[in-house]
Amino acid sequence: MTTTQVFTEAELDYLAGQRLGRLATAAPGGALQNSPTGFRYNPATGTIDIYGRALGATKKFRNVRAAGRVAFVVDDLASTDPWRVRGVEIRGTAEAVEDHDPPAPYLSREVIRIHPERIISWGVDPEHDGMRGRDVRPRTSGTAQDDRVEMGT
After folding, report:
1. Cis preceding-peptide flag for 102 (omega within 30 of 0)
2. Domain 9-149 CATH (choose: 3.40.50.2300, 2.30.110.10, 3.40.190.10, 3.40.50.12240)
3. pTM assigned to the model
4. What digits encode the pLDDT tens for the residues 48-69?
């Protein structure tokens, strides 16, 4: 992985095939909000970018501007027989960027840019069973910590 690519190839492949995720933010007073939203992986910055038609006028944009901490989940049910769930959770910091050129003309000029600090994935990589979580924050040694997490954490 490069310094900007914190996702595994399996995670990137999974995210590329999905259209919606859920963004959890916290208001300054502590109230939580969970919003379904579209997203794009930005390979230039190694971030998840969230756009919208009037994103700057939304509560999630104001929450990110005020608090800057988020969790973002993309998941689905791949099969019911056998039961197979898969997904990626991204925890980290986010910035509320204004006056940014949108990727499509119908989107507003604001973007929420998520900088991953911890990534947890499950069911997206046939090489790894169960849940897999790792810290991806920059470290002085330049390595990321990889660990298995128990279901339900």
Report:
1. no
2. 2.30.110.10
3. 0.85
4. 999 999 999 999 999 999 999 9
